[in-house]
Amino acid sequence: MSWNEPGGDNKDPWSGRGEQKGPPDLDEAIRKALDKLSNLFGGSGGGDGQESTGGQGKNLGLIAVGAVAAIWVASGTYKVDAGNIGVVTRFGKYVEETNPGLNWHLPIPIERVDIVNVEQNRTLAVGFSNVGEAGDRSEPKEALMLTRDENYVDVRLVVQYKVSNLSNSAKKFLFNVVDPATTLKQVTESAERGVIGSSDMDFVLTEGRNEVVAQVKKEIQEVMDRYESGIEITSVNLQDVQAPEQVQAAFQDVIKAREDKQRLINESEAYSNDIVPKARGAAARMLQEAEGYKERVIAQAEGETNRFSRMLGEYLKQPDVTRKRLYIDTMESVLGESNLVLIDAKGGNNILYLPLDKMAQKLPEIETQSVTPPAKAESSPAEAEEPITVRPTSRGRDVRGR
Amino acid sequence: MTTFNKIIIGIAALWLIGAMFVFSVNETEKAIKFKFGKIVEYDFTPGLHFKWPYPFNDIKKFDGRIQTMVSKPEGFLTAEKKNVFVDFFVKWRVDDVSSFYQRVAGDVYQANNRLDPIIKDAFRGEFARRDIKQLVSTDRKAIRDIMISNSQASAKNLGLKIIDIQVMRIDLPPEVSTSVFRRMEAERERIAREFRSQGSEAAEKIRADADRQSVVTKANAFKDAEKLRGEGDAKSSEIYAKAFGADPEFYNFYRSLNAYKKTFNKSSTLVLDADSEFFRYFKHQK
User: Fold this and answer.
1) Facing A377 at nearest CB: one of B199, B253, B262
2) CB pairs < 8 Å spanning A and B
3) CB-based contacts of A265: which residues, under 8 Å, 6+ apart?
4) Contact assessment for residue B210 and residue A275, using Cβ atoms and an 8 Å cutoff
5) For B198-253, how does the pLDDT look when each residue is reduced to its tens digit (9 = 90+)?
6) Do A346 and B275 touch (CB under 8 A)?
7) For the whole model, what pTM was predicted?
8) What is the ipTM of this complex?
């Protein structure tokens, strides 16, 4: 017991002065201290005798002890990197958190320090394992979960977390939970199943993603806070939410069907875009043709009547002569072009044989050749009236011909 | 040399005595102090504490942090008599280290083993009262709270405090999940069909509308065209009537002549009587 007190005295000069004072001073100090020590013990004379004889060795020994002590004291120096926090415990009891920079604690075994990174983002994958460059490997047991409407969805989630940099968080992180990372994974799995389980599949797969993420994040944080884990969830990402593998094909088909629907609509719109303008074009043509017809017919009428009126004027001056002349002119042109059979058999009952059938046979071919009407007859009223009965299709040609 | 030795020995002795008379308790630890095998003290705060050397006092330390018990998936019957596979975890920590030491020898593994049937029994009761829908979606939190309060007493008996009990997976048995998958497929098929039919419907409507527009446009155009033609015809008739009305007799004559010109052509064969007006001078050239 009594050894404790001088031991305590010894410690002070060493830790207080440090190495700068140099060996002689230190030596002296140690010697003085030892003198006191020997005085205290008094009776141990044998020891004194040895000291005086081996002065050189004693000095060396003292230096060595001093050096060891200095190293021991210096071993309390530690560095805390930016973004880290040092947690100091004295004999196991939490003392303080230290900030980045150079710090000193009472050397081991009195105090020790644990350094916790409070900025580093750690990542946790649930529903798949990140195998690295080879790609992700699905963990169907983790990923598959039931929704409220009793469907399965395949959810892959990434949680990013760090040790919170609020005060006491590093301490909580170190002291409260056995395996914070595993705990976080379990909590995440439970929370996401809870949230997905209270949502419908379609909601989860489509517009609900953000809401699900927010909800999961909130719940994980709540639970981790309840455990006083010192962990802060920085983000939760839904890596992938989809239908389970077993029904992937059917889900793909729905997507295809949606596309098919759009395709059908597009096709029909293409059809519509094709025929409606064409119909408008055709309608415009019909109207233009009709307009053309109207104007043509009127012009024809005006032309013809004009011709007639002039003729009539002349006719009225000399009706008989003009009449005769017209008749003969006409007959001339008509008879001059036709085959003529003149019969001069007054009251004759001779039987006249005409090969009408043969003539009729010839007719079709000849008709086609002789389409061009006699020049004089071209603008006769008969022709003018004729187009009215002609079908619309031929009208077009008619007008264009003109 | 000897002073050095003395000092070394001194420090070592101090160390030894210190180690014999004190012990430290970590923040994460719970310790028990025994006196000849009997528990004398156990609620130590973290830090340095005094004890007598070995034969008189003995110290045992246990992990005081939150521990986890994870169950293997096990079948539970629901209210509708369906078997669901459930796994869960329990978070606990040592509360009363004395009981903890006496009941489960301070062993986490043993504690978990003792806890497992207790929790499962409680779960069985809760599950049997609910159907799958409630388990999966609505009642998770309620079950959690009930479970925690119900198992707290038993846990206390083991010197533990339950921090949390959470269900992780609730899985349907394989044959049921296959039919769930099949139902999901059927549902998707229904939706896919609906999409396709909607597509056909819309397409048909668009086509029909286009056809109608086309027909109507053409018909309206025909109507207007006929009107125009009628106007033309009327106008021309009016013009003709006005002009020809001036001398109908002459018109008939004139018109007939024109008709003759038009009617006959090269291919016509005319059989004429020599007595006709035209041949008046043919025979008698008076």
Assistant:
1) B262
2) 390
3) B199, B202, B203, B206
4) yes
5) 999 999 999 999 999 999 999 999 999 999 999 999 999 999 888 888 888 888 88
6) yes
7) 0.62
8) 0.70
